[in-house]
# Entry
Amino acid sequence: MEQILKDDIKQVHDQIERESIFVQTITSEIGKVIVGQKYLIERLLVGLLANGHILIEGVPGLAKTYAVKALAGAIATRFQRIQFTPDLLPADIVGTQIYNQNTGDFTVRKGPVFANLVLADEINRAPPKVQSALLEAMQEHQVTIGEETFKLDDPFLVLATQNPIEQEGTYPLPEAQTDRFLLKLRLDYPSKVEEKEIIERMTKGKEPFAEPVVQAAAIIKARELCARIYVDDKLKDYILDIVFATRFPKEHGLDDLEPLIRYGASPRASIYLVTTARAMAFLKRRGFVIPEDIKELALDVLRHRIILSYEAEAEELTTDDIVKRILERIEVP
Amino acid sequence: MSVIIGLLATGLVLAQGVAQADSVRAEPDSVAPGYRIVEHGPVSVAAKLKPQRTTKPLTVGDRFRLELTVKRHRGQKVSEPFVEELGRFLVLDRNTVTRYQGDTIIDVHELEMAAFATGEIAVPGFLVTWPEQGEVLAVRSDSLVLNVASVMPEDMKEINDLKPQIPFPNLLPLWLTLAVLGAGGLVFLGYRWFRAWRRRRLEPEPLPESWEEALAALRALPVKEWLSRGKVKRYYYMVSEILKRYLTRRYGFPAIDQTTSEMVLAMKRARIAERDGFVGFFRRADLVKYAKLVPPMPEMETAVVQAQDLVNRTTPKRITHNAQRTKLDA
# Structure
């Protein structure tokens, strides 16, 4: 295959084969701490490589925080955890200016957002003002305190969690803000075998932890490589077909979905589908994207970008159902 | 005229007789007021039954003829023969012929009669009256016995009365219902026929078998032309499409909308024996389609043959066997 791939693709392909070894290292290091959750770990790496933030939704106790901590531990980066509460203030996240009595000046005290990996735990418990402060940092990769603007370190990845069952006293993220998350993951319970292994590990008295095995520079280099992964035009068309089907289902032969969707996915969805598909191809050690990469990630990229109609809600349909139907019906090139 | 008078008199007598039947029967020989019956006199009357024209026994209603011969002297005036009580008989007609024999006048009265009772019944004697010395004398003919047979069958004891009225049911609602149902049935049949006709008209031509369609499509590909022009990607896209359509139609899973990995699972579930061959082809085609792979020329040229081979190997055995037989026969 090496001899007959086009030169540009071949070069990227070879480079990925050489430099993607750290993926295996990180995965096995996280695996020392987390049992199972292959889906979560893979998506965390996709987020890391695609330079996008991740919203994780799952009932308490599914090792959301633990997995993020393990990922942060495996990468030699700064990690911060912010527990979102109703009384949290924007300054508690981005930082504030403190008056120095000795000098008579204001000095900046940076907040926890100045880290490489930020875990925003239960993001929906904080008021919208606080959420906005974080989301601005997520989007701009910079924070302004007073009159001074600070660039955030690269890599900068926000992993936010939210609990889908306790809605009382929460501030659900507005659609415009959830759209800024690259992926929205829905976690499920572990299998019986996995849970048995969890019991074994967590009841030995000493909690396992991940050692740093990868430098942040390796991640940044991998991102550059990801951007060079080849995406065929037909696959770009396929992505557009999927995204446009969320906006104009009827034009794509999905008449039955027309009354169920109020707003389709934004152009950000198309961009993120390409970047995440590239990241997935990197994880699979390929220099090119195949439809599997797109289809595998479409649900996580699209589920929080589609707004359902009342009719869909009345039928108890979720965005997952809609995306699945679209993926089933759009022809793979 | 005399005949009419006689008949009227007979009718009156009959009416009287019927009204006073019982009292008359109690005293048959009692003298009716106004005349006296004598044994002999200047007038005689003789009764005789005239023979039947058929040999059948006389039954109720059959006509028979009674001949009454009245002899009297010329100049002697007599009444028409009459009867005190006719009983179970009716006089239907009568005819009188008068003959002269010297001083004697002979009146022959022929009465046409019928009985309306059965058994042995007697025709009563007829009376003829004449005036003599201030009183009216009468002479009576002999009574004749007749055997009147019954017209009823032997096993029938008496004539039955009229049967009760037969109630004829009102069948109009039934007929209306049947008519409505019939019309409904006709409309329904017409509608069914119309739908079948329209379906036949709109129904597309039946598709050929999936393997026939795939093989025909593969044969129709301008392989050499595309390869000579370097349209490798298009070539592999087309062959993949044909195989995907074939798998969709042949095994019923939506291969057209699936990725290669999904097809692998679907083929595994469908237990397709040649799945390794299909998977190998699709994986290779994926490289051409998504990674700009250009396989060596011999490989490209045989790709379509490989696809045909996969279709042939997954064609149902019965069909393959028949095809082979046809080939052999040819």
In short: Chain A has a mean pLDDT of 85. Chain A touches chain B at residues 1, 4-6, 9, 13, 230, 232, 234-235, 286-292, 295, 327-333 (CB under 8 Å).
